[in-house]
Amino acid sequence: MYDLATRRHALALLGDGRSMNSVSKETGISRAAIRAWQVRIEPLPRVEQKPCSGPGDAAAYAYLLGLYLGDGCISSHPKGGHYLRIACADAWPGLIEQCRTAILAVRPSDRVCVLQRQGCVNVTSYSRHWTCLFPQHGPGKKHERRIALEDWQQEIVDAHPWEFLRGLIHSDGCRVTNWTTRMVGGERKRYEYPRYFFTNKSDDIRRLCTDTLAKVGVQWTILARGSDPLNVSVARRESVALMDAHIGPKH
Hints:
By secondary structure, this protein is an alpha+beta fold. It has helices at residues 4-15, 20-27, 31-37, 58-71, 93-106, 130-133, 151-159, 161-172, 203-215, 237-246; strands at 72-76, 82-89, 112-117, 120-127, 173-184, 187-199, 221-225, 228-234. Helix 8 (161-172) crosses helix 9 (203-215). The relative contact order is 0.12.
């Protein structure tokens, strides 16, 4: 059973000039189903289904939410249900394991597998409840649509702000060491200092990051990439110390 958004997405691909075969291969939906949707697009009668259960571990969910907003996606299974996929770079094996552990804590009854891709892995889990747990799911790229938390999600983030921030930084952020030079006693000396960055094209997701940083007492600034304000920067010594105590570099 496919939801209405999934059906509209498949038909939109056809409307862009894609062939039936290519849309079927990309979405995993049979050509017969897509062909039927061209005739009928209104919601089909729903099969009775158990209501979505909440996340098993709220702190793990806050972390997983941050990962999902940065590097996650949800796709439909042809026979129903959905796959959650979180892309993690091969360079950070600790992050891959933390992601896997968080998924199992949120959905203890579901399986998690790690699928190798070029330069990264997809930490993947199948469930009928991922779209309930991540209602931000929808067709298109995240930065091209509105992203807002449901009230129950905001309550979890408010209760576990550092876990949420850790997920955001582990997905689309980093801890780097910058340097500068300064004249001291007529001699130019080099100074190094750490800072954190969070980079995301979505204004809404960056705002979720900065609002949460402010709540935990971290000072931040926006650095533009060209004309786009894509980078959230944390550079003040006290704020970096807070980030180090609760997040630290990826590993």
